Amino acid sequence: MSGLVKPTEYDWKDSNVADIGTDKDRAVKKDSAMTEKCWEPVGKATTPFLMVWRVKQFNLVVVPADEIGTFYNGDSYIVCKASKTPDSDKLLYDIHFWIGKHSTADEYGTAAYKTVELDTFLDDAAVQHREVEGYESDRFKSYFGKLITLDGGFASGFREVKPEEYKPRLLQFVKEGSITYMREVPLCKSSVNSGDVFILDLGTHGYQFNGKSCSPFEKNAAAAFLQKLESDRKGRCKTEVLDEDSTKKEHEFWTRLSDEAGEASPVKTDVVKALYKLSDASGTLEMSLVCEGSAPRSEIKSDDVFMVQSPKGLFVHIGSGCSIDEKRNALSNAHKFLSSSPNPFLSITVVTEEKAAAFLTGIWDE
């Protein structure tokens, strides 16, 4: 059940994606894009859609419609969202690649490469995004009615094991904004709190634990998931709903959880708004700080690439008059910049000057 689980969290962070965007890379990518079967339905679509692919051994596998919104943190994914504005029939594309905390550098590199390849296939019509598990952008999260993150890699999935051979897991349900998240957490007592709802999935038994301060939305989401477990396992999984105040410490829900502390999540530091300029005017590509504490729109010019860092993510503004190298290396330079910053897991959005207002309003200072 556990599939391919990598020992190091966010090990892909220091991977090198510097070749993405070179002239040679673009030519190869265009040729490759025209033969990538996963892009065929994208090219044929005339109405809004949401398509998701999972990286498997440097290739892409289509995620079935009923599994969209579920991500395994040992893998990387590509998500393409197509939408229309009320006054136009032209499709607008957002391409995100999502990186699980146990994804490898190879998987990250493939997802990044294929994201740029899909944008090339669409003749640079898309907006490119990078998403990291636990740090997803509001835009990305809005695509899904629920967002589920589970441990494991490509081989993971309940359908591949019998209930009695199932590896126990603890699932946490959290309501944030309009989205209810379900994420797998360490199988230990310290993972449980009074503010959320948890499901202990033992394969043949499932317990829903309602924290005394949880929300009705979390209860409803957990109840629906528990009902699905019963259905998927054809009655071979007995379920029970527990309330924190009336559940004794001798109950199986507590005794199956370890007393050991789970792995600590990365500490999220405060993000200071700042504006950076990326320019090759000197003959070499150089990054410089324009200002810190604000990001004035008036400082953003058309002849260079600018990066606006904010709590909402890192937004890369591609000026209409910037050089080819500045433009094509924007994603890899953003990744490199964040890798050595105090906030390496921020979401990244690469946007052209033409589309900047739609993404940067409220981010830059007018």
Explain what this protein looks like in three dimensions.
With 366 residues, the chain is an alpha/beta fold. Among the domains are: 157-255, 3-Layer(aba) Sandwich (Severin); 267-366, Severin. 21% of the residues lie in helices and 29% in strands. The chain has nine helices and 17 strands. The chain has helices spanning 23-33, 40-44, 105-121, 138-141, 216-232, 252-255, 324-328, 330-339, 356-360, and strands spanning 49-56, 59-62, 70-72, 76-83, 92-99, 126-132, 146-150, 169-176, 179-185, 197-201, 205-210, 238-243, 274-279, 286-292, 305-310, 313-318, 348-352. The chain has a ten-stranded mixed β-sheet with strand order 2-1-4-5-6-17-16-15-13-14. Strand 8 (169-176) and strand 9 (179-185) form a beta hairpin. Helix 1 crosses helix 3 (105-121). The longest helix has 17 residues, at 105-121. The protein is globular, with a radius of gyration of 22 Å. The termini are far apart.
TL;DR?
With about 375 residues, the chain is of the alpha/beta class. The strands form two sheets. Strands 2-1-4-5-6-17-16-15-13-14 form a ten-stranded mixed beta sheet. A seven-stranded mixed beta sheet has the order 3-7-9-8-10-11-12, covered by helices on one side. The chain is globular.
